[in-house]
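Q: Entry one of two.
A:
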Amino acid sequence: MINTLVTPQDAPELSKLSTLEPRIIYSRSITPPVVYIQAPKILARIQVPVNISTEITLDRPASELKRKSDRVLLQECQLVAIHAHHFKIKEGKLFIEGVIETNMEFAAVENTSCTESYGDICHTTAQVPFKSCTHITFAEGNEPNLAQQQEQSTFLFTKPKHHGTMPSLRQFSNQSVYQHEPYCELVSYSMDEVVEEKGTGMKHEGSCHEKTFNILSKQIVLHLMIEVLQVQQIPLQQH
């Protein structure tokens, strides 16, 4: 405890302080406005398996497949809403279409004998189409906005001279809100396949023979990693 000694000389000063009115200081807090940007937003990332069975026919008999390379192209991706709430898609079906572009080099057989066979090294490109449909569920806060919202209203007016509910004037109001359509991007893919050589069978000349083929039968399991995006208005974080 601290004891303070007040002398008579200090008493008038204290009385002056006691009569002063308290002052209130207001501080203004300025909140900056929220800034929005329009940018693609990643709504979901899913893995889609696709099973493909196809046959590729070569334009001439071949004895050996030298090398090949594959490239997957996503051509169509359409989201169909099956459950929406407050103009936001909660669940949907994703319809996917694309092609596998296969580049191959093979040894074509023109003629063969017991000691040698000859032919050209040929190149061909085949496109294998594929389709798939998969279910997709969007997490809270990452739902796509519906592509279009439309409201229609009709207002009826009666003139003063009319009695009852017979309308004489009508006013129509239409409102449509357009959103960017969701779209897809292919992030990555992996492919496993079994290839069977079919076709012309054996080429005989005397006692010599060589197996040739002109059909490649392929069983493919394609794994696609796909992102679903939509251009939305996103609040910009300010620090």
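Q: Entry two of two.
A:
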Amino acid sequence: MRATALIRAACNGRVTTLPQLRSDGPFHLRRMRTDGPSATVGIIGAMSAPLGGDRLTLDITAEDRAELEVTTAAATLALRGPTTEAATYDVRLTAGEHASLRWRPQPLISAAGSNLHQTYTVELAATSRLVLRDEQLLGRADEEPGHLVTRIVVRFAGRPLLDQQTAYGAPEPGWDGPAVLDGHRATGQLLVVDPRLDALREPVLLGNGATDGCAVLAPLAGGPALLATAVAPTTSAVRELLDEAHALALAGWHGRAAAPGGRRPTASPYNNLGVLAPGGAVPGVAPRAHPGTVRR
């Protein structure tokens, strides 16, 4: 199956409109009800996909000053198809000047026997803002995962910002070893790009990798951006870690401007090792137990 769905958001000076919303194949697109000037599009799966050999593309554009969020109604399940050829799932994200684009889908599940290559290609203007969230579950209950390769390529203001590839499942060597997933079966990434960010200078460690999983939030050298990568036993634990990383990123942005109510945030609750100090708290995140040290 070959399918390409298109979403184009534009600003009419007051609110964000959707002049182009074209469904195709397994992608059924619906505008969701929102408050305020932004627009939200929900993607509903119209059929089982991706299967082996499928060629699927989502092309999403937020034009100048548009504010767009795109999400999915349910998890995406990659299954074995009639051929062993890899399926491809390409997500193209483009944001114009002063535009805001948020990609927040439900997790991708790599079922046994599946073979999927997923690619994010992101093009950002110098004044645009992006939140990209990607969560993956490797195998359903009591089954081995399929073969999953994910690549994220981001250009900011015409320059490379990020080019990262991960690969899980057979025949990849050592993908579940201590240097990669350490036996965990859920992983995820959060990329925040915002010219207003007061980016962290050092990576921050979140969580306890030995039991509940962990995440690393780190600045990127090519622009005002933070990247969080998490591994955990379940997608709910990954989501909690990425929520915490997102809140910390937003706290960094508020370091440049007064927080709501005119208050400026206090000093970072993390110590020099990037560990949440006793009694520390991140705005918008419930306090967690002190994670201690993370084994490498």
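A: Comment on entry two: The radius of gyration is 19 Å. The chain has one helix and 18 strands.
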